[in-house]
Specification:
By secondary structure, the protein is of the alpha+beta class. It folds into two domains: 330 residues, Outer membrane efflux proteins (OEP); 87 residues, no CATH class. The protein has a four-stranded antiparallel β-sheet, with helices on one face. A two-stranded antiparallel sheet has the order 2-3. A two-stranded antiparallel sheet has the order 6-7.
């Protein structure tokens, strides 16, 4: 019994620690991205679309093989009919059975099958690159949502810190009011400020909660599942390094490696193959066919007795004997030459050429958009770095001013209103600095994305 109690206690402690670990587990940015790759609905749909393209590519290769089909039938004939096996006139009811094997192979059709294989291959590549591009965009969206949570968390902390400072000031002013050193208006002012600070905490906490919900929805997590992100040490010491890179260098790398460009290139190549397929319909089509069939009938055998010119009937041969004796085979070589198809062939060629021009323009437009996005991202990153440095200086100055006013307030040289104004300036400057910091981090991550670097906050 004692051993059993120890075992039960051990199991209970283990389960408790396991559940606690599950609740307090932190989600890193990398874990969020990996989880989204496996569970996000839109990414799963894009992956399935890639599998469909893979099947189409496989089918285009299998189309080079001959087609083989078997057939069988069993018929009941009522009254007079033609025997489909012996092609003789039969009187009365009868039963017949036929079996056959047919195969057909396209020997030449203007290289349509070969070019269709090439087209399907490029279609598959385009679909694969579309999937990779969807994953890349999802990574950026998750990084943005993740950083928004970190920013909102800091703003909540700033608001809570300001509330605590105001609460401490209220206690100080309350003591001075009780001692008759300050008028009641000073106490009312600080109480009103405390109410505003508490409301600010509640409001910012709500914004933070909504940002968490946004990320959970991206990950397709259940609403009831507990969720908390890891808070890494965001490094802003290398802001001067942004000047060491240039947008042209980033573009030259991105235009060769970004999946959105590779997808456009694959679709352009596919359109070229589609034009060749369309031209293939002008040429003759050469086919080779082979058929084999046999049959059985229960009608009696009827032969002419030429000695007295009479019809002599005998019982029908057994099933397998007839199937062997009635076996017929033939090989056929056929050619089809297109002469006139209401202009459909030439219109298809014209449409294929137009589609090729459209895909070529899509490729050029994709490159141009990529260049514009990189230029914008590079400029935004530089502006964000400068903004953060300026806001950091503003915060440090506001903080020094507040500390100076705090000493003067304690000495009774400034009013509580002036101190509150200075405190609000510190809170605003700190919030602005936090926004600038995370804006800069996200802008840099966009540049990392275009350079093929992994999205990480470490």
């Amino acid at each position: 019994m004692k051993a059993l109690r120890h075992t039960a206690l051990f199991v209970a402690v283990f389960i408790s620690q396991f559940l606690s670990a599950q609740v307090t587990e932190k989600w890193t940015l990398e874990k969020c991205i990996d989880y989204a790759f496996k569970n996000n609905f839109s990414l799963r749909q894009a992956n399935l679309a890639t599998n469909v393209s893979g099947n189409q590519y496989l089918q285009s290769k299998l189309n080079l093989l001959p087609s083989v089909n078997a057939s069988a039938s069993y018929d009941f004939n009522f009254g007079n009919s033609i025997n489909p096996v012996t092609y003789t006139f039969t009187t009365g009811n009868s039963q017949t059975s036929q079996m056959g094997l047919q195969t057909n192979l396209t020997l030449f059709n203007g290289l349509q099958q070969i070019n269709t294989i090439k087209k399907s291959k490029y279609d598959l590549l385009g679909s694969q690159y579309d999937y990779e591009n969807a994953k890349s965009n999802m990574s950026l969206n998750i990084a943005s949502a993740y950083l928004q949570i970190l920013l909102n968390r800091e703003i909540v902390q700033v608001a809570e810190e300001q509330r605590k400072i105001t609460a401490e000031q209220k206690e100080t002013v309350q003591k001075k009011f009780d001692a008759g050193l300050v008028p009641e208006t000073s106490l009312l002012e600080v109480e009103a400020q405390l109410s505003r600070d508490e409301a600010n905490v509640v409001n910012n906490q709500g914004i933070y909660d909504l940002s968490v919900v946004t990320l959970k929805q991206m990950l397709q997590l259940p609403v009831e599942q507990s969720f908390d992100v890891d808070v890494p040490q965001v490094n802003t010491d290398n802001m001067s390094g942004i000047a060491e890179v240039n947008s042209i260098g980033i573009y030259n790398y991105a235009v060769k490696n970004q999946p959105v460009v590779k997808s456009a290139e694959a679709k352009w190549m596919s359109s070229q193959m589609a034009e060749k397929v369309a031209y293939g319909f002008i040429t003759p089509t050469l086919t080779l066919g082979y058929n084999m069939f046999s049959g059985y009938t229960n009608s009696p055998n009827e032969n002419i007795d030429w000695s007295n010119l009479t019809l002599v009937s005998s019982p029908a041969d057994p099933f397998f004997t007839q199937m062997k004796n009635n076996l017929k085979q033939y090989v056929a070589l056929g050619i089809t030459v297109p002469l006139f198809n209401k202009g459909q062939v030439f219109l298809n060629i014209s449409s294929a050429k137009l589609q090729q021009q459209i895909k070529e323009l899509d490729l050029e437009n994709t490159k141009a958009v990529l260049m514009g996005n990189i230029e914008q991202a590079y400029t935004n990153a530089k502006v964000a770095a400068e903004t953060y440095i300026a806001n950091k200086k503003s915060y440090e100055s506001a903080q020094k001013s507040y500390f100076s006013l705090q000493k003067r307030f304690d000495a009774g040289l400034v009013t509580n209103f002036d101190l509150q104004q200075s405190k609000n300036s510190v809170a605003t400057a700190e919030s602005d600095m936090a926004r600038a910091k995370y804006t800069y981090v996200f802008r840099v991550k966009i540049l990392d994305f275009y350079q093929g670097k992994a999205l990480t906050l470490n």
